[in-house]
Every structure is written in C-alpha cells, then in structure tokens.
Amino acid sequence: MRHITIFISLALFILTSSQTGCVKEEECYEHLDSKAVALTDVWNTQFIYSFDNGFTSHGGSTASETTCEDAYKVLEVFENAFTPYFDIDFIRNELNKVFIVEDLHWYNGQKIKGVSIGDGEIAIDANQPNANVYLFVLLHEFFHVIHSNHWSLDFRINWSDAMGGYHYIGYENTASATSENGYPCHEFGESGYCLGEEDLLSKGFIRDHGERSFREDFATYCEALFLMPEALEEWSLKYPIVKQKRQLCIDYLSSVGVVLK
Questions:
Q1: What is the pLDDT of residue 6?
Q2: What is the pLDDT of residue 173?
C-alpha cells in the first residue's frame, strides 16, 4: 500500500498584495467556481460552498458559509491528496456531494470537523490549521459513506466477534483523541489526530473516537490503514484484536471495490 506524504502548496494564487490589498471577492469565486466545475467533471462529486441561509443537514447538523479562500484549500486537498487513494470510478460512484462550510456543529451542538449526512454526502469545516486536517476529515467521512453504501450484517457480526461482544460507550461519553491529551501516541502530520495509544490498542482501538460506535471504530481503522499503514501493521503484530480488525477492514474494503495502494 502506498502512503502519500503530503506537502501540498495551498497558495496557487495569492489573495493579498502590499499595493492593492485583497483581490476582489468576485475574482476569488471565479477561481473557486472554475476549480469546482473542473473537479466535478472528473470525479462526479458536487462541491457546495454557497448558502442563502446557512447550512443544515438532514440529520440536524448546522454550519455557516466559509470563506472563498478556505473553500479553495479544501478543493486543493481533495484533488491532490484525497483522490490518489482511490480509483476514479470508485469516487464517481460513491461520493455525491461535499459541503464546504464553517463553524460546523452536530445536532447536539457539539463542534465537529466533519460529518457524513447520508446519500453519499459529507460536510467538512474548512476553518482548519493545515492540509493534513482536511485530508484526515475527508477520508474519515468518506469511510462512513462507504460503510453506509455497502452495509453488511456479516461484516458487523465478524467485527463484533473480534471484539468479544464489547459494548460501545456511545457518543456522549468520550471525545476524539488528540495529541493534546498527554498520552504517547502517533500524531498524523501535525493534524492534532493521535493514533495508537497503548491502553487503547490493548482493547482493540486505534483512537478513542472508535470507542463510540461500530461505525466510528471501523472508520478509525480505515484512517490508520490509509494514513499510517506501517504503524497499523506493527500494532497488529503486538495486539491480537488489532490484527483481527485490521484484516477484517482490509477484506471488507476489497470486497466493496477499494483498491488498496
């Protein structure tokens, strides 16, 4: 599997200068609209970043409109970092829409970076510190899309068997693991996402977000499989549950048409 190291330039055009100040908003949106149309032509994914009255998802998540500059950054990461992980036809068939927003909140008011909202649609908060966060969120939410599009009871049962009947603790009892919690871990590219804490690995989890539910557990394994494949393989040699779930994840993704690179 190929691990893509991301050093993406997010400054293809500069929106300020010492003489003239900010480039006109209309010119920025011309670049943005042109980029979005070009990507849709290739990947068949629509990018939506303008809203008359803010953004509200089917499940009740809410957000406001982001800046033109930040929306453009998301498109750059989608094109240059996200798409190389998948065959073109797979993305065309699976991912229908990406809503690019700001100040994204879950239905319960919790601030979130991204959300999968059904029907092959995801939303991503574009107000993030670097490209690695965009990539992490895009992949995480796309794994939810894949899981939803190809739900398998057999896969769910096999995963539960690997966990020995573990009962997930739900969405109100834990927060996403980050490098700020003080535990030794493997942070992905200064993204703030921390994987591989030993106490979690011993229980079969990649990061504590996976303790929330089966769907989050699966998505966090996919994160590691794509972004830290060598580390995940190393953990699987030490922790039996991780080994089982890693193989289940690989087999499932292969069965639905993901070609691991």
A1: 42
A2: 53
| Three-state SS letters, the chain | CCCCCCCCCCCCCCCCCCCCCCCCHHHHHHHHHHHHHHHHHHHCCEEECCCCCCEECCCCCEEEECCHHHHHHHHHHHHHHHHHHCCHHHHHHHCCEEEEEEEEECCCCCECCEEEEECCEEEEECCCCCHHHHHHHHHHHHHHHHHHHCCCHHHHHHHHHHCCCCCCCCCCCCCCCEHHHCCCCEECCCCCEEECCHHHHCCCCCCHHHHCCHHHHHHHHHHHHHHCHHHHHHHHHHCHHHHHHHHHHHHHHHHCCCCCC
Residue with tokens 């977000």: 209
Mean pLDDT in residue range 229-240: 95
> Which whole number is the average pLDDT over 165-181?
60
Distance of CA 71 to CAs 78, 124, 235, Å?
Answer: 11, 10, 36
Instruction: Give me the half-sphere count of Cα atoms (radius 13 Å) on the Cβ side of residue 120.
Output: 14
Share the mean pLDDT of the chain: 86
Q: Which domains does the chain carry?
A: 25-149 (3.40.390.70), 153-255 (no CATH)
Q: Which has more confidence, 103 or 17?
A: 103
**pTM score, whole prediction:** 0.86
The pLDDT value given to residue 198: 87
77 pLDDT above the threshold of 80: yes
Beta bridge partners of 186: 195
SS3 of 21-35: CCCCHHHHHHHHHHH
